[in-house]
Amino acid sequence: MNNPLAARMRPTELEDVVGQRHLLSPDKPLYQMIMSGNIPNLIFYGPSGVGKTTVASIIANKTKRALRRLNGTTASTKDIKDIVAELDTFEAPNGILLYLDEIQYFNKRQQQSLLEFIENGSITLIASTTENPYFYIYPAILSRSTVFEFKSIEWQEIVPAVERGFDFIAKENGAELDIEQGVAEKIARGCGGDVRKALNSVENCYYCAKEENGKRLVTLENADELTQKSAVKYDREGDEHYDIISAYQKSLRGSDVNAALHYLARLIEAGDLPSACRRLMVCACEDVGLAYPQIIPIVKAAVDAALMVGLPEARIPLADAVILVASAPKSNSGADAIDRAIADVKNGNYGPIPRQLQNKHFDGEDAAVKGQFYKYPHSYENHWVAQQYLPDVIKNAKYYTPGDNKTEQGFKNYWDKIKND
User: What is the pLDDT of residues 363-379, one digit of tens each?
Assistant: First the structure.
């Protein structure tokens, strides 16, 4: 009874696993591998509570190999050596199936220590991680493994698991439950696609339930209180952080006001005010830019106000600014222009600054023509005069192409007329 409910009622058959039909339907490769009993080295990648450990446990039950478990957060190199020492002994005559949870916490040397044994087949590795394995797992381990991605589970699929959880814990305790309508749906919606969280909420609701007429009453109010924070899945160092801020910025750029507000809400609920402000400011400059140049000081003022008042009030100026940025006309002409200029500089496409632009100083004796000869634009009609500004080697370079918005086209038409381009 000390184990969490999710562990006590863990499925033992693939058909009973919640979700992951893209992996566990009978016609899918992972299902067929497991049923054949020929298990290669596997890496399970996906968020918490979506069935990675459950599937690994089912695999362990279907193999004749000795099962050993390690967790990357607590295991040491000595633990790996102890497992290796069991090979070819009576304890592991057919080899070892090693389930390594949270492999991303293993350093490079620890991961390397497994290589020889997973390559010769004496250890079959099933590793799980919540982070992108292509960033966090040693390439030599990856090249010897097959990666399967587990996805967050839709709340509708979790409802039956919640209902089974209430039945399971009631039978365990010989109790009778009176569950208000909507409780299972509330828990399923609030768990953010994490079955383990949902079942933790079931257990909490059971023990918080009051007895009435010989039954435990599980109320919607209790379910709401115990699940209201579960939907926010966020790790400022993990994939979820970068996925949310990426979706936030792309929604702003894509002019989808509702999506931008949704991802802003997720950042606010996670308390990540700096990311919400920084990406918003970047979008104002990069994606709206010269199509509506006045937006930059407006968004800066909203960001300053948000940082000044803090959460929860910061949501108001940020929402105003998000709606403005998402709704505004877009132009990335400024960002493209500076990127082209930087590319030239990085590639060595530059030369001496034209003499007329240099700071005033004496010409050397080798100068064929002495004098700076700078033309002051304000001394000429329309405050412009033709003269060379770029170095000779790139004097005809063009980095900026005006966007097709009213503001930039207005500037273009004005200068075309003045310069007779």
Answer: 555 555 556 678 888 98
